[in-house]
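Issue 218. Parser rejects a valid record. Input:
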Amino acid sequence: MKLKIFLFLSVFFLFCTCRADAEKKSFERHKRIFPRTVVVVQTPRHSPLCDHEDYLGRWNDYPLLWDTKWNKDDTSTARVPLGDYIQQQKQAESYLLDGFAFFPGLWHCLGFLKLSRQSPSNLLEIPIINLWHRDTKDMEAIRQALDKHPHQYRYKGKILLLSYWTQKFFTPEQLKKKLTAMRARFGDRFYFLPDMPRLGNLGYEWRKNKGRLTDKMQKEQEELLRQYLRVADGIYFGESHMLHTIENSERVFYTEFYRKFIISTILKIFNEPEFKGRKLLALSALNGHENNYGVGYQCSHNGTRTLRDSLQTACEANPDVIMLPEWDESNENTSLRPTLYNGFVTKRVVRYFLSKLKGLPLSPLPGDDVRIPNLTVSFRKTLAIGEPLTVEVLNIPDGGKGENISCHIEICSQEGKVLKRFAPRGLRTDKLEEQRFLTGTEELASERALQIFVYVRKNGSTLCYSGFTPVELRVGTTYDYRWAKHGLRDLLPVKNVEITHKGNFFSVDFDCGENMRIAALNLNGDIIYSHENSGEINRFRESADFAAFSINASIKDGKSIILSDGWLSIPGVEECEWQTTYNRITRGSRYRLRWISQSARKHYLRLPLSKIGQAKLHLDLPGVYTGSIDLATVRKEGIYAVCGDNGLQISVSRFQRQPRMTPALDANCCRFTVEVPDDIVNRTVFFHAVSMSGKTWRSRPFVLEKKENPVAIRVFSSLQGRFVKTAVPGNRLLKIAYDFSPKAGQMVKPTNGDRSFFGALGTPVSPLVLRNRGQGTNGDPYKGTPYLAKTLNTIPKQIRQSDGSWALDFKNTYAAFPQDLMPTQSGYTVKMEIFPRDIKRCQLILGTRYRNTAGSLAGIFIQPGGNISAEFAGLNYNTSKINTRLQVRPGRWNTIELRNTGDTAELIVNGKSSGRKKICYPGRYRTLAVLGGAPGMFFDGLVRHFSVDQTPAR
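Output the parser choked on:
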């Protein structure tokens, strides 16, 4: 009997071991054609350091190693100065990358082939061809690359061409015709790998069916791969950012799906006799995909897990090419380049994997202090209460002697009081190994800002590391999903720091061990002041003697207007100074405005404060707009906007922030006093410094708010998966009501004046909130839709009522509000007063960008006949509806109230309640809230009250 039990257990153990190994690998490795795996990084070069680029107030992250002196060396046609290009190549070499892959049809990127000839680097420059793109630059890039270009990857006389979105636009038959024509033109001198992004769209089906597809779907995908392989030289799977699953209410990289379906399916077909050893395989890996466009994020960085898991999985398959998207894509936060919030952590992780892939010895970065463990610390820098605070501590082996160390962390208040202390956990220095420390932020809800301290015990002694990015806590919602990453070896040594503040004035006295590239103050995550010795950049920032303004001009998506005779002028004020181009200041009462596009380009204006009473900004833009804006009104209201046809928006803002990137400070100390803007209700301020070598240090946070007594609220705890009770200071609860009067022009200002929540009439909100870049990202609800292409005017009218109130008159128009408006982790109450003209068709009163969701709300509707309904969409693609018999009446004012407790909601129409119904939570996306409807469901009528209140519903 004992023998039988022993044999059974032995067989069972062997089975489990084999199954575990199979689960881990789950595919047969590719029979590679290239001599070794070529690893390149995709680069759209969205973020060069050219004159017209404006990182500050435009992106969620910034280059770590910027230097404005490179702007003076802009002799290239590639939007990137040669000095910047060479610096980026040096950085890419230190990552052990083989080169860049670029889009020749994008702006002036074809010039990179010329720049690479001038650079001392031997890094590759591989074109990414858009066959669907009509720009001839793609074909010209092929010609140049074939013409004995020294920096093209060649194998057996052929160059490598990658592609973008091929499967979305070309069937296998169409691709065959296109490639036949290309080979007729250029000869059989290239390998073309079509991008197959649609494989990634099946992740939801895979997850829903518990780790498999139906036999029919599986066979369809396999046959489609065969068809593409028969006409192309291989396959490229590039959109790994679309591979996500849900973990603690966060979209994290779906490693299992990548390994067990995408790569496994591809290699099953590759290893068939027809294709084995004959086709090239290119895979991708990524950092993450956060804060992209208008829907929050697609795939979290998840500390460094997304990068580690995706890169390790791609390496296991033994592909011919691995593409890492992207080097410098700032508006999606996929960047691999050193950034303010990535530091050198991404470099350290990539170097580890590529050293192993290339058979190189592990080694520290040049300049590393190897006495400090090669640990990295990562966490999200902004959280809504209820979301988990996850602190990842990662050890990255770098060739040193293996030893046991331990670490633990403390979470502290802004003053340094310990709020939570975790027990020590062990790490081996010769293993790629992490420890994660998690806590629910609902436990820390009384705090506005947190500090992280890391303690490392090694060889019997314990050292404390600090100077990390503070964590900002917000109630209910946050647009910012950025992870902040820090290497312990990349912390800047500090000799002396004194930071004091009196009211809104902050004084900084800072001295460190290296010369600094930048020394700056941050307000709620945005750089508002960067110190410079000359003062030339900061002259375009409000001061005691001068008024400063930011003028933003944008127009409908896809439009661009060249102005032959466009002018901005302030008659009678010759002391005006104007700036758009980095090093060029124009003086006098007139300023030439040459062009307007969809991206809100900033123009800065400075004039003596003594002249503000007589200063009227005249807009003389023939065929576009003619009018004037009183600058004294702008000073009073903080902003004024005028709008016109084709989505035209010209906004003028009182400017108290940082206008431009400053030159490298190149000094080891700084002293300054600066005023922090008070146009945001709840403010968190901290100082940060970056050395010339890229080391960073952050101060403790300073919270500026009028604290009120605690208020009990319910929030969704992502760790517990349910709603829990907590308490927050009353001042931090969002209470926003909008003023529809035209006193700030054609924009919508909240009655509390909070700049974070300014709205816009029929135009993008981004220029108004001074965050991100406008229509190209999170600003415009209906960017790129056929409706906008056809419609001339999208702006509701502002109408004064007989009782003195102001209303918006909607008819195929809308008003947009920022991502932060609708809470994501807590309840809220929405109130509206509406005057519908008719109730015969379905109308969307309050909706969201592209019909995504703001929080969990998908929309409040008038159904045909006048019944009011609401829809909600959950994170797992679940939906809820509240259908009522409560009716609004046409031709008169009606009140609508949505009381959302988080997991229940009720509609109250003209004082009558639907009763509470269960709804799904948390929401699927974090995006714009849109009043007035959407194409096909626009609201026809008036709205004279609109408010959102996080005060708990009773």
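Fixed in the parser; the record now loads. The longest helix spans residues 2-25.
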